[in-house]
Design brief:
CATH class of the largest domain: Alpha Beta
Largest sheet: 7 strands, parallel
Distance between the termini: 24 Å
Structural class: alpha/beta
Number of domains: 2
Radius of gyration: 22 Å
Number of helices: 14
CATH topology of the largest domain: Rossmann fold
Strand order of the largest sheet: 3-2-1-4-5-6-7
Number of strands: 15
Strand content: 15-25%
Helix content: 25-40%
CATH superfamily of the largest domain: Glycogen Phosphorylase B
């Protein structure tokens, strides 16, 4: 039996949910899996099978060091030593990387360990960060330097992951050195769009497999509620937007512009995932919902809407599109990233990015002509079943040979063996245990 160790920047949010879903499916099938992530105040409580790399204070310290030096992923040597010591004990046959940014782990140490021990790697890319000098996306900056080497970075310094010093030229070279030359690595992308970009990057020599993200169809399904009555939408067409963090990237300005153009007596815009800061930017004719209590409540809101509008400008494979369609509500989105890959002609429409005129016209056409039916949306949603989607990961795990036994994962409190480590402004690394 083989051992799986999954590493991600957290155990919640979209990527944490994917990691947990894949691990749970593996365990149901008789496999065993570690889930490894740093301590973070927004994480879900550890479930007794997790390796928590460090506490929140240490995590924040390493993130601040990266922020003020520009060297993202070059710190956390002690944390990484502890992890490598533990990996030496459990001897994973497959390490499954998810998001490795946000400076919670020392990348040169981790990848040197993988190469030294000839461990098979599956790396699910949730954005473009692995092959750029720093940015997770480059659509809005319209930058193509990632193809030949970065530097003079147009990506805002305050944007995630923060870096007040531009070290993108060096980081691009470092990442190319660290991430290439792995003996057995398969890259997984949730969208065809990202797969095509990988094939143009310095990761192009690795096999790339597209495995779309999935959702829980037992939760996201048509769910009736009194949401419309509670918020007084009346007989208006309800246009819904949902995001974890609203801003220009998610198209907050587009909703504000639409609220000026659309007839207030006929259309009602509702935004979910807002906060006090966002509320200050919103006009009175947009309904703001800060946080939902649970996924069932979110399914109720999707169901109440007539149309889900997603004017995102940078995206990989947005879960919100799938959730809306599964609840029977069609999707209208910008043609950006993998967002257009989710709806088909039976359950949604796509317009060019930043073409607000086209989006306004489509909203009117979809609502007035009732172009998409709930049953058609639900038919499309069958392809989003997370258990079916994530079985494809099990096939990848099996390709390494043998079955899998479930590993009990523990919280690391100390390391009994640590080799020396060296820190310098340009490079931080350690010898693998």
């Amino acid at each position: 039996m083989n051992i799986i160790a999954s590493i991600n920047l957290g155990n919640r949010g979209s990527t944490g949910k994917i990691m947990r879903s894949v691990s749970a499916l593996a365990e149901k099938s008789g496999y065993m899996a570690y889930q490894i992530y740093p301590g973070n105040r927004i994480n879900l409580p550890p479930n007794g099978r997790d390796i928590v790399l460090c506490n929140f204070v240490t995590f924040k310290l390493n993130r601040e060091l990266a922020k003020y030096t520009g060297y993202i992923g070059c710190f956390a040597p002690i944390t990484t030593f502890r992890l490598l010591w533990k990996l030496n004990k459990i001897k994973p046959d497959v390490i499954h990387f998810h998001n490795l940014h946000n400076s919670y782990i020392n990348l040169p140490m981790l990848f040197r360990y993988v190469k030294k021990h000839h461990i098979r790697v599956i790396w699910t890319l949730h954005d473009c960060w692995p092959f750029t000098g720093r940015c997770p996306y480059f659509d809005m900056t319209k930058c193509d330097k990632w193809q030949t080497g970065c530097g003079d970075c147009p990506y805002p310094k305050e944007s995630y992951p923060q870096a007040l010093v531009d070290k993108t030229a060096k980081m691009w070279k470092h990442k190319k050195k660290w991430f290439t030359g792995i003996e057995n690595m398969t890259i997984v992308t949730p969208s065809r769009w990202l797969a095509d970009l990988v094939k143009e990057s310095f990761l192009k020599d690795y096999p790339v497999k597209v495995i779309h993200n999935g959702i829980d169809l037992s939760v996201f399904k048509p769910t009736e509620s009194n949401f419309r009555q509670k918020h007084g939408t009346g007989g208006k067409y309800m246009l819904l937007g949902v995001a974890d963090s609203w801003g220009e990237r998610k198209g907050l300005d587009v909703f504000i512009e639409l609220s000026k153009r659309l007839d207030n007596a006929k259309y009602q815009i509702v935004l979910v995932g807002t906060n006090d800061s966002v509320d200050e930017q919103l006009p009175d004719n947009i309904i703001s919902v800060h946080r939902t209590q649970d996924q069932k409540e979110l399914a109720e809101i999707y169901t109440a809407a007539d149309l889900f509008v997603n004017p995102t400008r940078e995206e990989n494979y947005p879960t919100v599109n799938m959730e809306s369609i599964a609840c029977g509500t069609p999707v209208l989105t910008f043609r950006t990233g993998g967002s257009p890959e989710i709806p088909d002609e039976t359950c949604g429409s796509v317009v060019d990015c930043d073409d607000i005129d086209a989006m306004e016209n489509e909203i009117k056409s979809i609502c007035d002509n009732k172009r998409f039916m709930r049953d058609d949306c639900m038919g499309r949603a069958k392809m989003f079943d997370k258990d079916e989607k994530y079985k494809e990961y099990l096939k990848l795990y099996k390709n390494s040979g043998g079955g899998y036994r479930v590993i009990r994962i523990i919280r690391i409190t100390k390391c009994t063996h640590i080799d020396s480590y060296h820190m310098s402004p340009d490079h931080v690394y350690g010898k693998a245990c």
